[in-house]
Write a structure and sequence with these properties.
This protein has helices at about 15-25, 55-60, 130-140, 160-170, 190-195, 210-220, 270-275, 280-285, 300-305, 315-355, and strands at about 30-40, 40-45, 50-55, 75-80, 85-90, 95-100, 105-110, 115-120, 145-150, 175-180, 200-205, 245-250, 255. It is an alpha/beta fold. The strands form three sheets. The chain has a six-stranded mixed beta sheet with strand order 10-9-8-11-13-12, with helices on both faces. A five-stranded mixed barrel has the order 1-2-3-5-4. The protein has a two-stranded antiparallel ribbon with strand order 6-7. The chain is globular.
Length: about 375
């Protein structure tokens, strides 16, 4: 796609965002989409072309977390546009947001305003159905459609591949599309491309080395992303993508690549887990005790169904693990919010003092 003059609809702008811009009274300000993030600077795409942008000092000062800053995929309202540079005045409300919990407990935004998530796993020894379920729960929690991509099918036999597809369909649900791909043989690339429609936004999720960058290069038709081989000893990939960036296909599809991570920690995603494990959730509601842990309590319908072979044991264990993880995050998040509330009161007093003294950090 030419990054010169274009219609905003071509880069994903819709009636949803226009309505939100009107509600905020920002209809007279130009709108742009964040296509790349470089520390404190952003590349944004407008109807007139690409600009370099930064956030205001006031937004930086008032931010309470990473979610208050722009992310790749965001639509933003600009101010002070001059000489290919601009200031981000406001972030328009997000239609969807993918986020994960980092090791330090901080919530990190992966991408925003995504319609479909391609969840990629390679068929080497690092393959994990549990990881597919984890990513599906994250996607579903935000209303994003998950698509499972089994990559590097050239590494296994046809019989093994068919068994993996059957296993995924059983665990993820028949409604989840499963696509088998291989850059070496070209399998599935056209099928993947056929899933992409003009004006819609797609992101690639998966661990390092599963082949996300290679698939994006194949879809774009040229090598725009660096590709590295996986480690010979570990079978694990090296971190190739180091930042999030947006790419545009000739037929109008919008792709977001994401740095690979070994594990994606869950935030408070009870809705996503409930949708991904809908059958197990319904069984759990029929247990004898309302606070049943589904482990040892008498009258547990969920454990009973697993022991009777009615539900998959691996799915049962993964469900309980993810459920425990998101409940733990919810509890620690509440504790964090209490601390933030106390710190917020301190900030309010400080801001008033800075404003009264016309401090340089409060001039935007």
């Amino acid at each position: 796609m030419d990054k010169g003059k274009q219609n905003m609809e071509d880069i994903g702008y819709s009636a949803f965002f226009e309505t939100e811009r009107e509600k905020l009274g920002l209809i007279d300000f130009p709108v742009a989409r964040v296509v790349a993030e470089h520390r404190e600077l952003y590349r944004v795409l407008t109807e007139q072309g690409e600009l370099e942008a930064r956030v205001t000092g006031k937004r930086t000062f008032e931010a309470t977390g990473r979610e208050d800053f722009p992310a790749v995929g965001d639509f933003v309202v600009l101010d002070k546009v001059e000489n290919d540079k601009a200031v981000i005045h406001e972030i328009l409300p997000r239609k969807t947001v993918l986020k994960r919990k980092r090791g330090n407990g901080e919530v990190q935004v992966i991408a925003t305003n995504v319609d479909t998530a391609f969840i990629v796993e390679s068929l080497n020894r690092d393959y994990s159905v549990n990881r597919f379920e984890r990513y599906c729960a994250i996607a579903r929690d935000s209303g994003i459609v998950p698509v499972a991509v089994l990559n590097k099918t050239d590494l296994i036999s046809l019989e093994d591949k068919e068994e993996k597809v059957r296993e995924l369909k059983e665990r993820l649900g028949e409604d989840v599309i499963v696509i088998c791909t291989s850059i070496e043989t070209g399998e599935g690339v056209n099928e993947l491309d056929a899933c992409i429609t003009a004006g819609a936004t797609y992101c690639f999720l998966g661990s390092s080395g599963v082949g996300k960058s290679s698939l994006i290069n194949a879809l774009i038709g040229k090598d725009v992303l660096e590709v590295r081989e996986i480690g010979e000893q570990t079978g694990r990939g090296k971190h190739t993508t180091v930042q999030r960036e947006m790419f545009f296909l000739e037929h109008g599809g919008i792709l977001i690549d994401n740095p690979g991570v070994r594990e994606v920690g869950l935030t408070d995603m009870q809705a996503g887990i409930g949708e991904q494990f809908a059958v197990l959730e319904q069984l759990g509601k029929k247990c004898k005790f309302a606070d049943c842990t589904h482990r040892h309590e008498p009258g547990c319908k969920l454990r009973g169904a697993m022991e009777a072979g009615l539900i998959n044991e691996g799915e049962y264990e993964n469900y309980l693990s993810l459920r425990k993880e998101t409940e733990h995050f919810s509890m620690t998040d509440q504790e964090r919010r209490k601390k933030d509330k106390k710190f917020g009161k301190f900030l309010q007093v400080t801001k008033k003092d800075l404003k009264r003294m016309h401090h340089k950090d409060y001039d935007l």
